[in-house]
Amino acid sequence: MKLFDSKEAAAYLGVKTSTLYAYVSRGLLDSVQATDDSRRRQYRKADLDRLKQRSDAHAGESAAAAGALRWGAPSLDTAISEITPAGPSYRGRTARGLVREGYAFEQVAELLWTGTLPESPPTWPMADVRPSQRHEEPVADEERPLDRMRLALMHTEMADLARFGTTKEARLECSRRIIMALGAALVSAAPSPRDSHDEESVAARLARHLATPEEAVIRAFDTALIAVADHELNASTFATRVAASTGAGLYPCVAAGLATATGPRHGGACDRGEALIDEVLREGSARKVMLARLRRGEQTPGFGHPLYPHGDPRWKMVVSRLGPTAAPEVLDAVDELVDVADQMRLGPPTVDLALATLCRALGLPSGAAAALFALGRTAGWIAHIFEQQEQGFLLRPRAHYVGVRPLPQ
């Protein structure tokens, strides 16, 4: 039986002798009396090995838990979506395949919520939006479309008595109403019961109010909404699941997602993509703009996605739908941007730049790309809210304290 003295045992464990003594006092480690000196304590190697293995395992778990919060290993079980090299899949159906087969956004949303893909596009009732939410004037700089959507959600919740319903159909009814209300806020023209287009799809309403109601444009909006409908456990989705785990209602949970999406590292990345395209159009040279940004140490948004090292498939899904109504100068500027970014090894373009390209090419107002992202992602948020409510546990991660320790009393 190999024995270590205090200094040797501490060195073997990689700790201070004071920590070694703390292990003994806490019952984590046994010591034995030295045969040649009753005042001296010794430590069995087998006991030290057991403590070392326990410490290493604990460190590994902590590291894994910390890594999971930073694009790391999966930390929750979900049956809603999966990230694959071909892009996201929804309930086992790839987003790319759903677009290729001509499904509408409403069908994909219902698939996410129920697990069943409707054979034909469902007709969702238009939202009963309060008159105070109608915005006929252009969006002011301080009032982004995404901000207006947050306001619309709050007003819609107050008017929706069905939000207290607990049946499956009541929850689906609220879900459809939420998306229709957010879409109405995005187009700055809330529909009224007298609207002759009250059976329009979400994409058709966006096309009619924001661009042109041509079939190609409608399909482009449908594709964009489907492409971003869900993406597993990103920041905004995690926020909605945390809220749902507390027992919060559907509207507050969606509000948590909308609030998170305003961040520049999430939905706000679309805003930065719009700004980058605008800068290239203004300067007339993507190379000049990118070099200037990099020399100033600034970010170049819209390139390189950590989960798609070989390219974000959603980029091509969206931009490939841009038809003859798209502004050619915008498409030329973005083509140059992508080419320069490739030469600079910044990574392939992402869906954030795709949404910014779509909105700029169709002449949508500033901030529309982030709002379009949030509108599509609301379908996924709602699915995750339902799933978290069904799982029934509180999401409460632990923190590893690294601050100043209190002084001994």
TrEMBL record:
UniProt-listed Gene3D superfamilies: 1.10.1660.10, Citrate Synthase, domain 1, Cytochrome P450-Terp, domain 2
Record's keyword annotation contains Transferase: yes
SUPFAM superfamilies tied to this protein: Citrate synthase (SSF48256), Putative DNA-binding domain (SSF46955)
UniProt entry keywords in alphabetical sequence: Transferase
Pathway(s) where this gene product acts: Carbohydrate metabolism; tricarboxylic acid cycle
Domain Helix-turn-helix: 3-54
Enzyme Commission code(s) on record: 2.3.3.16
A GO molecular-function descriptor: citrate synthase activity
Keyword Zinc: no
Family annotation (InterPro entries): Citrate_synth-like_lrg_a-sub (IPR016142), Citrate_synth-like_sm_a-sub (IPR016143), Citrate_synthase (IPR002020), Citrate_synthase_sf (IPR036969), DNA-bd_dom_put_sf (IPR009061), HTH_17 (IPR041657)
GO terms for biological process, alphabetical: carbohydrate metabolic process; tricarboxylic acid cycle
One GO CC term on file: cytosol
Family: Belongs to the citrate synthase family.
Name used for this protein in its record: citrate synthase (unknown stereospecificity)
Organism: Persicimonas caeni
Organism classification: Bacteria, Deltaproteobacteria, Bradymonadales, Bradymonadaceae, Persicimonas
